[in-house]
Amino acid sequence: MNILPLKGIHHVSAITANAQENLHFYTEILGMRLVKKTVNQDDTSVYHLFYADERGNPGTDLTFFEIPHAGTTYEGTNSISMTSLRVATDQALDFWVERLEQFDVKHEGISEESGRKTLAFRDFEGQRLQFVSDEHNEGVAGGKPWDKSPVPAEKGVIGLGPVRLTVSRPDVTARILVDVMGFREVRSYEEKGITPAIRVFETGEGGTGAEIHLLERNDLQRERPGRGSVHHVAFRVENQDELNKWVEHISASGLPNSGFVERYYFRSLYFREANGILFELATDGPGFEGDEPFETLGENLALPPYLENQREKIEATIKPLDTKKA
Asked: Where is the VOC domain (predicted)?
């Protein structure tokens, strides 16, 4: 079966316990656009918020499930342990040092990771994040920041960068990435205080928006997720026809999986890699403008057609979230 390579990172979905504070941090401080305010389709009692570039182009979405009673995250192995946010230049990182300090956001200063300038920081719930410079990127192109963002467009977030996986058995994850998902292992790099070296895998055009960084830690307990942890990472598939091929391919590989899942804004397939991390394959389309105009994306509660008959119940269950000015 002839399957097109995965195109890169599609989105990362994480957990928050406070949607209103989450909205403030990612729109008012980080300057991302809320492109969709909807609910978790598997549990409609909680919000699912999508922050991205101006229109939620694939590869730019950082999403959050609000779980109000989510406990503390106990960080450990077999987890998605770092999410990167791409910015256009090295100089943009200087802007972000000043902005993070302005808003009392803890950060680790500018450093270098695998030949790129980075700036690691955490959100108000301890979410592990870093800005990564696209100054020398030659792979997957970034998106376009929203022109109404409080952050100048030339400094803004243009997409998702490398995602780090921390695992106890790296070789089994590597086999799935390479032999099943078609990634290429391209290099490794040292990080202060960490051995062995972190392994880098890329797919599609490669570059900042198409990498998984694999870190071995077998000296830690398994991560206990809560607020500030990552739920899953999704990878880009060209279209629904290609996704159907991936459903067959993943099933033939022997990996238990969800089969085809309709998400309305994209179509998906879910499975867990060998260390238990949840992967999703998601189509580039249809996108977020099928039920809202570009100008007002994210301002109202959007529901896919198959949940529309539950709107009254859903709106009565979730607490109001003011997004008109987000």
From this structure: 8-134, 159-284
Q: What would the pLDDT profile of 64-83 be if each residue is shown by its tens digit?
A: 999 999 999 999 999 999 99
Alpha helices in the chain (DSSP H): 19-23, 90-102, 170-175, 240-252, 311-317
**Residue 292, Cβ density class (10 Å: 0-12 exposed, 13-18 middle, ≥19 buried):** middle
* Enclosing H/E stretch for 78: none
pLDDT by residue (tens digit) across 77-112? 999 999 999 999 999 999 999 999 999 999 999 999
DSSP E strands, the chain: 9-16, 33-40, 43-52, 61-66, 79-87, 107-113, 116-122, 128-133, 159-167, 184-191, 194-202, 211-216, 230-237, 261-262, 266-272, 278-286
**Terminal alpha carbon distance of the chain:** 45
Give CATH for domain 9-317: 3.10.180.10
Q: Which pTM was predicted?
A: 0.97
Distance CA 224, CA 231 (A): 11
